[in-house]
Specification:
single chain; eight-stranded mixed beta sheet; nine-stranded mixed beta sheet; binds zinc ion; 10 helices
Length: 412
């Protein structure tokens, strides 16, 4: 009897340990956001360091690989700022990443340049042209407010470049880094550039890498009943990387959150063998422009028509207001199923439908006719985005969200 009891206890403890693991997820998130991973981008091979860690986790979990080592290598062109970045407004130092960001389409630059403050009365491109021509300044930097935000990163025919003023710490992105232009563009927090500022000093070099070597990571578990049909769970593990040799963008919500959930789901499904095969794919290059997922659909590691459903997770670290499902209006039955599961178990405040949006790695699959949805969490408890301070996502509703996903996958 005592023996039977202890067996039951062991089974119980084991099965509790088999569900989602918030502690593990938080620990790995911190690790991937640490300085050692350089923001998982394209300076100091941050993406490759993250890939190595993820592939080791795949191996530890016993996933099968479509390739020799879970890697699917590919390349793309990317501009980088790997060295020291110095910027001064008059003589005040500006902090890279915090006070300002540089458009990744910018070339290197060195020198002191006069600022050409464009007044608010100038509001159309035509007015801007005549204002700049009348200023007579040939080697300066235009200072523009948000009404000209559409010009950011474009090539402008005057001076060396331009500054776009932001109301707060600016967001960086790297999706315009596949070509280098002639104009240097900065976004600066307007509180760091008072209107009395006359000059800007800039000193940084760019390095354009024609063929940056990177990799997707893919593995799978074979289905217990149906082997050649796949449910596919995806996330991107890359982030923006480094801007200069000091500022790194941790990407705790975007998308260490999705990456860690995929790793947690792998542990779950190794303990709960699935009916259908499940493929787990972690993409790189998402921030550059869905590079990894686009490469994958052109060079699939298994036929895309074998995919029954793909669920992409990107920015899932909040949840106080529920989740949004991209492509919900396309796949109405699937969406209704998700809502029904949520209503039955009271997991999340709201499961919200959204239409098509080519805003993450589900999109290239969807365009190829694969049934694909993209889920992100919503909540105002954490608003860090593409910032040097996106480093500690709360995972507010992680357990409930995890149960919702596994419940859907298990019953699909
Ligand atoms: Zn992002």
């Amino acid at each position: 009897m005592a023996r039977l009891f202890s067996i039951i206890l062991v089974v119980f403890v084991f099965s509790v340990g088999r569900t989602q693991n918030l502690q593990y997820v938080k620990k790995v998130n911190h690790k991937l956001c640490s300085k050692a991973y350089h923001g998982r981008g394209y300076v100091k091979h941050g993406d490759a360091k993250a890939a190595k860690y993820i592939a080791a986790e795949f191996k530890k979990a016993g996933l099968k690989s479509f390739t020799d080592n879970y890697y699917q290598p590919y390349q793309f062109a990317i501009n980088t700022f790997p060295g020291k970045i110095t910027a001064k407004a008059d003589n005040r130092k500006l902090i890279p990443g915090t006070d300002f960001v540089i458009s990744l389409s910018s070339p290197g630059i060195k020198g002191t340049f006069p600022l050409i403050w464009v007044p608010d009365s100038v509001s159309t491109p035509e007015q801007l042209v005549s204002f700049v021509e009348s200023s007579g300044e040939k080697d300066g930097f235009l200072v523009l407010s948000q009404q000209f935000k559409k010009l950011y990163g474009t090539q402008i025919p005057w001076g060396r470049g331009a500054i776009l003023l932001e109301d707060k710490q600016p967001w960086w992105h790297v999706s315009n880094g596949r070509h280098v232009g002639r104009s240097v563009w900065l976004k600066i927090d307007k509180h760091k550039l008072p209107k009395t500022t006359r000059t800007i000093y800039l000193d940084f070099n760019n390095r354009f890498v024609e063929q940056y070597q990177t990799q997707n990571i893919a593995g799978y578990l074979e289905g217990s009943a149906v082997k050649d049909t796949f449910l596919v769970l995806t996330a991107h593990y890359d982030h923006l990387g480094m801007m200069g040799n000091k500022a790194w963008f941790p990407g705790s919500n975007d998308n260490a959150s999705g990456t860690t959930m995929i790793l947690d789901l792998i542990h779950y499904y190794t303990q709960h063998p699935p009916k259908y095969s499940i493929a787990f794919i972690l993409f790189s290059g998402e921030e550059v422009g869905l590079m990894g997922s686009n490469y994958f659909v052109e060079h699939p590691l298994f036929p895309l028509k074998k995919i029954k459903l793909l669920i992409n997770l990107d920015m899932i670290g909040t949840g106080s207001e529920g989740i949004t499902v991209v492509n919900a209006t396309i796949y109405k039955n699937l969406f209704q199923k998700l809502v029904a599961i949520n209503n039955k178990h009271h997991y999340l405040a709201e499961v919200k439908a959204r239409g098509e949006a080519c805003n993450s790695d589900h999109c290239p699959f969807y365009k190829k006719g694969v049934k694909s949805i993209f889920i992100y969490t919503r909540g105002k408890e954490y608003l860090e985005y593409h910032s040097v301070t996106d480093n500690n996502v709360p995972y507010t509703k992680y357990e409930d969200f995890f149960k919702l996903i596994t419940n859907l996958v298990d019953n699909y």
